[in-house]
Amino acid sequence: MPAGSQLQLESIAAIPLYNGDDEAAGGVPPAVARLKDAIAAADGLLLVSPEYNNSLPGVTKNAIDWLSRPASDVARVFRGRPVAIAGASPGGFGTILSQNAWLPVFRTLGADLWPGGRLLVSRAAGLIGPDGELADRDTLAAVEKFMAGFVSYVRLRSAVPPA
Ligand SMILES: Cc1cc2nc3c(=O)[nH]c(=O)nc-3n(C[C@H](O)[C@H](O)[C@H](O)COP(=O)(O)O)c2cc1C
User: What tens digit of pLDDT does each residue of 110-147 get?
Assistant: First the structure.
């Protein structure tokens, strides 16, 4: 991450399947409420998602769907929030079809999609060292460039009051 910025890692692992009856009976689950608050407190959101069957993974979409509930809270969580999308895949296309499939989702939520860069990491299995960390220098440089661009955008956006 660029100097002066922080990346807070969050997981969707505790988010159950969306069910409108459950929501009507009990509201959003605690894991969803916590993640919504974390996004609302952040200056920007980086979504790192794999690609399933040439589109976005249903499990990740399920999480975003819960995070968009209730609809009256979408503005607090997503509207105008800078969003960047990244991903890594074992094949040669680096999640490009997944990333494209996210675009209408974040447009619908009114997020401020960063148009300035793409991070498509292909053949990812060969880029990771034995310690599980990214070891490939070119990919590390691409990640650094991507994050520097997104953080600059976030800083620019947070300096401008919303219209
Ligand atoms: C159901 C399924 C569909 C997949 N489809 C794609 C695909 O279309 N393109 C691709 O690059 N990788 C595809 N993969 C491989 C994933 O990129 C790879 O399994 C990745 O590690 C998934 O991340 P995960 O372990 O967090 O699920 C698919 C994997 C699964 C399980």
Answer: 999 999 999 999 999 999 999 999 999 999 999 999 99
Residue ranges around ligand 1 (CB below 6 Å): 50-54, 89-91, 93
> pLDDT of 81-106, one tens digit each?
999 999 999 999 999 999 999 999 99
Expressed in angstroms and rounded, the spacing between residue 76 Cα and the centre of ligand 1 is 31
Among 131, 125, 141, 83, smallest CA distance to 108 is for 83
Ligand 1: residue of 11, 47, 52, 96 to mutate (most ligand atoms within 8 A of CB) is: 52
Ligand 1: distance of its center to the CA of 90 in Å? Answer: 8
Q: Is residue 4 part of a domain?
A: no
Total domains in the fold of the chain: 1
Structure pTM?
A: 0.93
CATH number of the domain where residue 94 is located: 3.40.50.360
The whole domain housing 153 covers 20-159
Burial bucket for residue 78 (CB in 10 Å: 0-12, 13-18, 19+) = buried
